[in-house]
Design brief:
mainly alpha, about 0% strand
């Protein structure tokens, strides 16, 4: 006799084959996404000189992509509710790779911005859905660790793109540097399609009108805790992108006179983010998410303060601390978003990503105006104020660690 069960999918456990394949697939998606998204960041001075634009204008090539991503994350989330997370992410990464291969062919700065916007819109299908995909397919008790591993993978993807583009641009120009990254992203996209296991926790949404689908956003926008997390995404990501957008301009100018290949090495600081994004899950289970989030924000401010010094060694120390703090904060906030959203999880994650990339676009560009007019110190001061605003939002709206007994300690991560 065959018994039919309606037991819901409990998720892949840490250490299982499915768990490892999901993380490996998302790591490849992270490389395909973030290597392309930020590959131009390390070679902005090349673009500025080649296309005869200012530092803030050159940074628009980053902002155009992140604006495209920000406006696309919600449509991608709606599509994924119908088509499934894996299928939608696969389509997104293929489209982004095709557009990425066209970027080096841009004849003018305006054409570059258009292609970067479209590339970012295609890339929006990955970060918009990755956390929702993890939440559905991984056991809840391992979801925080999985989110940390995913964020660590995205930091490696971003690092790879910058490290590759800079040295190639030094030898053959920024167009060849960008092309090299796009070709590697294409290989990573294929690996994602091969590795991603068949989804088991996804339940397709019923056919609904657009108004009904938009209604899924209202609970997220009325939730003060989620709004606080969206504020973290906007303010902290904006500060993070600003530092990496303009530090190369500072170090290529006198008295430092760094070549582009040396500026690219600055992005090795991303390895600190790879470590911190995986560590914070353990710290959060002990001290609570809000405490760790505030500690990471404090590390960002301390790192900013160190970058005000003149010696290169101290600037690099500050960059490492700042980067570790950011990725730790992002890992906590992104994972917490999925935990707090009991309905419309894809939309909640998409709103987080919309805020995240809106901050990258708006703050990442406008801080360049401060840098051009008033210098690095003034820009760092503005970014420190933004981090303080984020900390105030966290203290005011996010809950502290709940009092738990030893027998339910394993569930205290969702606080």
């Amino acid at each position: 006799m065959v018994f039919k069960t309606d037991t819901p999918w409990a998720g892949h456990l840490q250490g299982s084959t499915g768990y490892r394949r999901i993380l490996a697939a998302l790591a490849c998606a992270g490389v395909a996404t973030f290597a392309q998204l930020y590959s131009l960041q390390g070679i902005l001075p090349f673009i500025s000189r080649d296309l005869n634009v200012s530092a803030a204008q050159a940074a628009l090539s980053i902002s155009a992509a992140t604006v495209g991503l920000a406006v696309a994350v919600l449509p991608w989330s709606f599509a994924a509710d119908r088509w499934g997370r894996v299928r939608t992410m696969g389509l997104a990464v293929i489209l982004a790779t095709i557009l990425g291969l066209l970027v080096p062919l841009s004849p003018t700065f305006e054409a570059l911005l258009v292609l970067r916007f479209l590339e970012g819109a295609a890339l929006g299908g990955i970060p918009a859905l990755a956390i929702a995909y993890l939440t559905e397919e991984v056991s809840p008790r391992n979801a925080t660790a999985a989110a940390g591993a995913y964020v660590a993978g995205t930091s490696l993807g971003g690092l790879f793109g910058r490290l590759l583009a800079g040295p190639v641009a030094d030898v053959a120009g920024w167009r060849m540097g960008t092309l090299a990254v796009s070709l590697c992203a294409a290989a990573a996209a294929v690996a994602f399609l091969v590795l991603a296991p068949k989804p088991r926790g996804f339940v397709p949404a019923r056919s609904e009108g657009f108004g009904s689908v938009l209604g899924k956003l209202l609970p997220q926008l009325r939730n003060g805790k989620l709004l606080a997390l969206y504020a973290q995404a906007f303010l902290l990501m904006g500060s993070f992108v600003s530092v990496y957008n303009y530090l190369g301009f500072r170090l290529e100018a006198p008295p430092y006179l760094f070549p582009a290949s040396a500026v690219a090495l600055l992005f090795l600081a991303y390895l600190a983010g790879t470590v911190s994004s995986k560590m914070v899950a353990t710290l959060a289970s002990r001290w609570g998410r809000r405490t760790v989030l505030l500690g990471c924000t404090g590390a960002m401010v301390a790192g900013l303060a160190l970058t005000l010094a003149a010696p290169v060694a101290v600037i690099l120390m500050g960059l490492v601390l700042f980067t570790a703090g950011f990725f730790g904060a992002h890992s906590i906030a992104s994972g917490w978003t999925g935990a707090l959203a009991t309905t419309g999880r894809a939309q909640a994650s998409s709103l987080y990503n919309l805020s995240y990339y809106a901050g990258s676009s708006v703050v990442g560009w406008s801080s360049g105006l401060v840098f051009q007019q008033l210098g690095w110190s003034a820009m760092a001061g503005v970014l420190a104020v933004l981090a303080l605003v984020a900390a105030v939002a966290a203290v005011t709206l996010l809950p502290g660690r709940p009092v738990t007994s030893s027998r339910n300690q394993s569930t205290s991560q969702i606080d």
